[in-house]
Batch of 2 targets.
Target 1
Amino acid sequence: MKSAGVSNIGFHRKRNEDCYYIDEAQGIFIICDGMGGHRGGDVASRLAVHTIRDHLDLTGAEDLASVMTQAVRAANLAIYKAGNADEALREMGTTATAAIIRDGCLTVAHVGDSSLYHFHAGVLTKITKDHTLAEQMKADHIFTNGDLPISSYSHILTRAVGVEPEVNIDIYQHELSEGDWILLCSDGLTDLVTDEEIAGFMAAASEPESTALSLVNAALEKGGHDNITVIVVCV
Ligand code: CA
């Protein structure tokens, strides 16, 4: 397995509120995209990454889904408590997309609108579902709200880590084949670079680092209005 991560502040934000973590030896990959006023966003995403990492003790672990659920719950509680303890951090929160790849199996824990994609045999599949109001409206077969298209609601999260004392966590498990690619990214990429374009980069990929850089550069060329973070893994 080979992997690379790249995070870029973009052209318009004062801080990079994305945070990522790679432990290739253990097959652990995490992206968190924080939100909240003042310092809240970057505090939340960093606290989430550190708490999830510290709770992913995989020694002898058999039920990875349960280990990951506990890890994200611990992050949720840590952020919720820190937010309540400091006025400047109140209501901070973060997305969390965490993956473990081991023994040919991918386990993902996911909250929010960062994304995880699987590229297998030339086909790109988005594994995670965004927890946004736009997706919720689609699921409820609501396609407009007066003059506003539902895409106007694509930035309103219906779930985030750290905003409430409890959080619902989606878990996905998939078999992987050697030569498959996995992409984790924040919405700074997916807002600007389409799935078709991402598939093109993955099809052309020869190694993770140059692919990660190409993806980030593509978002920068289209304006880079948000922080952009990607992790590319070749299984
Ligand atoms: Ca973002």
Target 2
Amino acid sequence: MNQWWRHAVFYEIYVRSFQDSNGDGIGDLDGIIQRLDYLNDGTPSSLGVDAVWLTPIYPSPMRDFGYDVADYVDVHPVFGDLRTFDRFVEEAHRRGIRVVLDFVPNHTSSEHPWFQDSRTSRTSPRRDWYIWRDPKPGGSPPNNWVSSFGGPAWSLDPHSAQYYLHSFLPEQPDLNWRNPQVIEAMENVLRFWLDRGVDGFRVDVIHKLVKDRALRDNPKPLPEEEHPVYHFGGQVHLYDEDQPEVHDIIRRWRTLLDRYGERMMVGEVYLFDAERIARYYGTGGDELHLAFNFRFLWSPWDAASFRHEVETMERLLPAGAQPTYVLSSHDAPRHLTRFDHPSLAHARARMAALMLLTLRGSPFLYYGEEIGMRDVPIPPDRICDPVGQRFPGLGRDPERTPMQWDAGPYAGFSTVEPWLPLPEDYKQCNVEAQRQDPASLLSFYRALIWKRKSSLALLEGGYRTLPCPESVFAYLREHREQTLAIALNFGSEPVTVTFPRGGRLWFATDPHQQHPVGLDWQLAPCEGIVVELEASPIH
Ligand code: GLC
């Protein structure tokens, strides 16, 4: 079977911010269609990505910007309609770009007719589609679970005097995945989009679907300050996520997808324990095709730290499974901002990209990283994200700002003031400015992505860590036909690395700086190189 997702470079599009086509300041599907040639027109003058993942496009009151779905089988008018969507799929496929939709099964919007129905009374036919419980004696919530967005995970519905569960906002009630009718309804949703030709799904917070049957209290306390994301609410999340029964559901979905052939699922397994992430691949390939590993989002700029994350994943993944690393996403500060440095920021951006695109795995890029977009400061009166409204400074708007296409008004994104502000430097940092410049970050991404397509070592080769100086992360990608050695100098000092065999430079963050002498290679601060090694005598 064609396992296109194993070779693909994926590109996440935050739909509201990619391209506005109708002058309302919000990105839409027609806008994305206009920009498809930028993503891949079949020639190396385009970026060359193989698949796009669209953040939710469904009707939604937008309390969590589409992650609160009010209808799973339609398109929000702000983004287009089903006909625009069909045209989008057709245009993407015509260019060889696969389409991955965001599937949000853990919760609906409180405005979804299912919840509206569920909340009408304790005896509503859909009451059990959500998780309702009586208050504890005294009136407090049924247990101590907390919402990922702060506060209790329960809200009281005064009408029926019961609490309902919401892992996120009160406007995002959690579905009850122990109810077979929910399972069936959501399988129909998957079929609806598969029949329309989508190539796969990114499954939102998949690890959260099933909750402890007895809804037991989570153990606490844990030092939340130590890691506010892992230990949110100061709890060990023992009972409100990652329950064994979730795997039964994923296996059902896998069977469904397999019937369509060549479709894939990548799960947002927002767990930080590699062993638990690995379980979502199932055994013998019967669960997720890919599971995100988000540890890079929290890794400091440090060779040992990245090496550790990669080695851990390589050690724990089941045979045949492929990792998925990301440097940036719509939920975390952009990596150029995280890895900022007074003089080496751009060198770091190149080296990070070189790492992401040469590690074993299916890389996911986040729109704008290819031109070095940074987080944009958001004035308090323009904060949109509910997380930012609740916790000033922690919101996700800064990484969700409009794509910077050119130096014109509103960066070519829109003809009116966009929903989120543009940065001051967009006139310098944009696609148009970088497109023709061979020294730009965009040219670097483009060249590497196209070169990657022809490298068996990168597409299919194994991974092996190489011994090297402390400031360097070095590894081999080995295939019968080709062996590449990659060395990345995270340090601010020059360093020398020695490879096991001689070779020739295959790619580098700065191709002009190389002076190979025998087996030794000199690396400047934040420089990365890829060397194609001579065939080994053993081979
Ligand atoms: C996921 C999404 C995030 C959203 C949350 C609730 O983590 O990536 O943006 O807020 O789920 O659906």
